[in-house]
Amino acid sequence: TPKGELRTMAVGSTALDFSYEINSDFCDHCLVAKVNNKLVPLSYKLQSGDQLEIISSEKQRPKEDWLNFVKSSKARSRIKSALKEEKRKISLEGREVFDRKIRRLKLNFLDADLPKLLKYFNVGDSLDFFYRVGKGIITSQQLRDFYNEESKKSWYSYLAAKLKRKPKKANIEAKNNFESLIKEYKREGELLIGDDLQKLDYKL
User: Fold this and answer.
1) Which residues are CB-contacts of 2 (< 8 A; sequence separation ≥ 6)?
2) What pLDDT digit, counting tens, does each position of 1-40 carry?
3) Residues 6 or more apart from 137 whose CB is under 8 A from it?
4) Nearest alpha carbon to residue 62 among 23, 93, 30
5) Cβ distance 162 to 182 under 8 Å?
6) Could you give the 3-state DSSP secondary structure of residue 32?
7) Contacts of 15 (CB under 8 A, 6+ apart)
8) Three-state DSSP string of 51-70
């Protein structure tokens, strides 16, 4: 260390490993290292006799790529823990962002929608989903596309249930049934569907 303290590290240890060995709280904010008075990246592999100083910044946070070069189990465990906590915080913020987006888009979010959202965006759990919303990976337009697609599915399913076609019936009867069903849900020149009476453009 700059004060002449000696530390024994495993062969292949990096400047970041050294930082976690000295101070686990400080090292979460590691920015760059100085070895023998020369700036080096945190991934620098230490050599016997190196004099090492770590430079930090409060704005710095642990990064996933740190796991690619640290050697010690202590450093790896601490980095994973810090990343998990950071993801949890972003996920909580992401839930608030999601609620604001839904209100702005004038959409109704139900608990039953969450499994469909996870499947649609191909994410494993709600933590990961809201994390992506918080990071801006999932946008307002993508949410709108999801709900538009779900509305279409609900509409087609409803029509299919109401218009159970039988092969022997005439086409004119099926057409009449369809038009009567349309008129049943027509209000002031607009087609309204779903429990929340969403508007849908249509043409007969």
Assistant:
1) 51, 53
2) 777 788 888 899 999 998 888 876 677 788 888 999 899 9
3) none
4) 30
5) no
6) strand
7) 33, 35, 40, 41, 42, 43, 44, 46, 52, 54
8) CEEEEECCCCCCCHHHHHCC
* C-alpha distances in Å from residue 166, one per residue of 99, 160, 180, 184: 44, 12, 18, 22
**Residue 144 has which token pair?**
């709108």
| Interior/surface letters 25-52, b for 16+ CB within 10 angstroms, e for the rest | eebbbbebbbbeeeebebebebeeeeeb
Residue whose entry in the numeric block shows the structure tokens 């303290």: 5
pTM: 0.62
Q: How far apart, in Å, are the Cα atoms of 58 and each of 83, 110, 137, 147?
A: 16, 39, 25, 40
The residue whose two tokens read 């929340």 is: 196
From CA 23, how far away is CA 27, in angstroms rounded?
Answer: 6
Alpha carbon distance 51, 37 (integer Å): 8
pLDDT in tens, 156-170: 565 666 666 555 455
**AA letter at 29:** H
Residue 20 is given by DSSP the state H
Task: Name beta bridge partners: 192.
Answer: 199
> How far, rounded to the nearest angstrom, does the alpha carbon of residue 9 sit from its chain's CA centroid?
37
